[in-house]
Write a structure and sequence with these properties.
The chain is of the alpha/beta class. It has eleven helices and ten strands. A hairpin with a 5-residue loop joins β2 (about 95-100) and β3 (about 105-110).
């Protein structure tokens, strides 16, 4: 019998939104940090307490800290980077609905996220337009019903699990009731950074779906997976939910073969398939995270030489307008 045990110590703790409070919690001072910024316009700091707890205290280059730490470099414009790096706006067929690939349709469910990752490719996405009054849920649902060429719906955002359980349950059940939809995919980082988000109502909703549910986690470093995350993943696995992971290759965070192998080991241990390793989407403000393609290929070759094939993720790049992810190796 499945049991859902929530670590109550995190339930009433607000996320860190002030860099000074976060640094105090981590026993760090500004002078020890690489290129810190107190505030980045339109993309503020947001870090769940449960994620900050996994960071090493007094370590200014902790790989989890570096993913969420605002830097002055974010204010520097790079001519190779853009506000819409993967062509989301051109792929928008209706406010809040994107169609890039055959047989699949992506829904922008919300602009909210549990955590603000500094390399986010949608950090400049016009969420107000996607969730405008001209794009009600019944209208979107009708649009999905009419397009029988699709069999899979992808819930994205923001993060779908930022919605409350009742609203997310309504969306999932409405989609599940459409005859030509056989698969529902959820792209989410929330259960990794804030595992206490999984409640009984949400788990019960997952259990009742007739469509095949695929959950795509976003984990970049082995240190992100602690015992609470493992418990949540185990509950999803028990419901026969397929779990895939996609990571982003990030400079000074996971750009070594050992870091990537450690991540794959931890994923496999938790029954998650290491699926994609993304080259950084060239979003304005994230150039300091970039690892070049040549180095990325070398890392993948090193992984192939050191571990089993199923542990090696597909190295991919997303290019605006392409009919699929571009496979690098």
């Amino acid at each position: 019998m499945n049991t859902l045990k929530i670590n109550s110590t995190h339930l009433n703790k607000k996320p860190f939104t002030d860099i000074n409070e976060l640094l105090k919690y981590l026993n760090l001072d500004r002078d020890s940090l690489p290129d810190p910024a107190a505030l980045i316009k339109n993309f503020p700091l947001r870090v769940p307490h449960s994620f900050a707890e996994r960071m090493e205290k007094s370590n200014p280059i902790d790989p989890l800290l570096l993913q969420i730490l605002p830097k002055q470099a974010e204010n520097e414009e790079n001519p190779r980077f853009s506000l819409d790096p993967v062509g989301d706006q051109k792929a928008t067929v209706k406010p809040g609905i994107l169609k890039k690939y055959n047989s699949r349709m992506l829904l922008i469910t919300t602009g909210a996220c549990a955590i603000h990752c500094r390399y986010c490719f949608r950090r400049n996405f016009p969420y107000a337009e996607a969730n405008s009054k001209h794009s009600s849920w019944p209208d979107r649902l009708d649009y999905i019903r009419q397009d029988k060429s699709i069999n899979e719906i992808i819930l994205s955002g923001g993060d779908p699990l930022s919605l409350n359980s009742a609203k997310l349950a309504m969306i999932l059940r409405d989609i599940d009731a459409i005859e030509h939809i056989t698969k529902i995919r959820i792209h989410s980082r929330t259960l990794i950074v804030e595992p206490q988000r999984l409640d009984t109502q949400l788990l019960e909703t997952f259990k009742q779906l007739n469509s095949k549910l695929i959950f795509v986690t976003h984990i970049n470093h082995a240190n992100e997976i602690n015992s609470e995350v493992s418990q949540v993943i185990k509950l999803l696995i028990q419901e026969k939910i397929l779990l895939l992971n996609q990571s982003v290759l990030l400079k000074n965070i996971n750009d070594s073969s050992q870091a990537l192998i450690n991540l794959s080991e931890k994923l496999i241990e938790n029954n998650i398939l290491p699926y994609y390793l993304h080259l950084l989407d060239p979003v304005q403000g994230a150039a300091h995270f970039e690892v070049n393609q040549e180095q990325a290929c070398q890392l993948i070759e090193a992984m192939k030489n050191q571990c089993s094939g199923y542990m090696v993720p597909k190295l991919v790049r997303e290019i605006a307008g392409a009919s699929s992810k571009i496979m690098i190796t």
